[in-house]
Amino acid sequence: MSSLIKTSLIAPFICSLIIAQSYDVVLEKKTGHNGWTSGWGTAYVVKNDIVTVAIVPELGGRVMQYDLGSHQSIYVHNGNQVPSSGNDLVGGFRVLPSPQSDFVWPSPPNLDFNPYTCTELVNSTDSVVIYLESRIEDSNDPKYATHKGLQFKRTITLYKASTRVKVDMTMLNKGTQTVEHGIWDITQSGCKAGSDYWIYFERNPSSNLGGAKGYVQYIHEGTDATQWKPDVAQGNIMGVQYLKKVGKIGADCKAGWIGFVDRTNGYAYVKTFTYQENKTYPDSGASVQVYTYQDYDLVEVEVLGPLEQLSPNDSVKLEENWYATRSSGPILSVNSAGLITKHLAAEQTEDTLNLTGNFGLFYPGIVRAVFTDSSGGQIGIADSITVSPIDSLVLTKKYQILPGAINLYLESFDNSGRSVGILDSVKIPSPLPITRAGKYKAIQSHKTQFTVNCKYGKLYLDISCNGSYRLNLFSIQGKLLGSLIGDGPCFRTITVPWNAAGLFVVHIEYAGRKEQKTVILN
Q: At 391, is the secondary structure helix, strand, or coil?
């Protein structure tokens, strides 16, 4: 119990330091940002002390930077080069119309690499929203016949005290013909020579792609497949190890996430999206794709929306969210709070629970370890752990199991105290029975008796026993609320403020015995 007391006293102090940090969002407009050529025009640089995002309207509205701290995730081929056509390798994040079978490269110029207009929709300390709009594709080149009349719009939002970047993409048909396209986004991520880079996503277990492999190989099918690693981790996790070989795969990922990990330095970047059931996806049914280069140190991490019939003036949308954190992979799962590299595991020794797990968090704040009963109701907080996206959470903890606890879950809260989601959960191997005490109801234990009552906003705990005793009353967080030491026969009362959510832990020592009871007021 001493470790719980220490945690409960120290964690609020540390948490108060985190909350004191503002993490305000700031927008700066820069020419020559990161040493880029002035030919790229003005970069819209948005940051919040955790991540930095830079958008370059002149380069087809591309996002050319998404850094966690000083660690770069987006590839920039040559910041001093002004591209003259879509064939010029630039890097960054961009959006194209799918399917790829419609393309005879270079890609449609007004959609891909010609300048976008740029407007600030919101510029506050809580968030910055940048709006981008392409020209309408008006080329009479026959290779753009199915793209003529298309236009792209998107908004990019960065939030206070978060690594989250929301990207809303809209494709409109401003032409006179009905076309069928989907939204296809591509992020070029840099891979430094000699480092260990991986892409992860969850394969659809019921997929028919590639002969039920869960993915299809578009380039060099049936030959070099050494960089594709099905089942690299439990849970149908697909891994792509960057080996500087050319290749491309696609998969019908329904889990709605794909992540890129610099395993050498322990940084992870994730895209999340919503898979739409009963829709037709392009390129053999792919919702995610990975393209690898052999001549350049980069990979392309791609998300695709379903194909849609677009009549004139129709539009289609795709929303995704980006997150960044510290992790060396593999990525086993992604949720709104963070990513999991090792699921919660629990081992039990009598009334002690040994917990292990490994996570990357998307928000600075705290993670609470919470015990729940068979109905899922919260019966106690075991711990509050200060967390940040710039440090992974490697959990190795011991907690005293509360009687009646069936499960333990980790809930993440941002630095304003708002819950951002359940990070992970685990079952308790051998739950302990619970003893409940209602008003004036006694719990018998050998020759010692407890009675719990609540009235006038106070908690009263009475003890009667024969012989010497020591009684300690703790909150469920481990804070000592009151003590009694004496000799029986006697009858004594502890009075403490009613501030522990109706659940208390009582320790008794008497006649060489040590007992613990968890008392819940009905």
A: strand
Residues 459, 464, 465, 468: is their CA dihedral positive or negative?
Answer: positive
Nearest Cα to Cα of residue 358 among 397, 394, 334? 394
- What band does 489 get if pLDDT is binned at 50, 70 and 90? low
Instruction: List the domains of the chain with CATH numbers.
Output: 2-16+341-427 (2.60.40), 32-333 (2.70.98.10), 442-520 (2.60.40.10)
CA-wise closest residue to 337 among 268, 409, 413: 413
Which own/partner pairs from 342-350 qualify as long-range (CB within 8 Å, at least 24 positions apart)?
343/424, 343/426, 344/395, 344/408, 344/410, 344/424, 344/425, 344/426, 345/426, 346/408, 346/426, 346/427, 346/428, 346/429, 347/429, 348/401, 348/428, 348/429, 348/430
10-66 pLDDT tens trace:
333 333 334 447 899 999 999 999 999 999 999 999 999 999 999 999 999 999 999
Indicate the pLDDT class of residue 9, thresholds 50, 70 and 90.
very low
DSSP character string of 70-88 = TB--B-BS-TT---SSTTS
Of 188-197, 247-256, 320-329, 394-403, which range is least confident? Answer: 188-197
Say which residue the tokens 């308790």 belong to: 428
CB 53 within 8 A of CB 130: no
The CA distance from 357 to 393, in Å, is 8
Does 496 or 204 have the greater pLDDT score?
Answer: 204
Of 367, 363, 385, the closest CA to residue 160 belongs to 363
Rounded to whole angstroms, how far apart are CA atoms 60 and 133? 9
Instruction: Give pLDDT tens digits for 428-452.
Output: 998 887 544 333 233 333 344 555 5
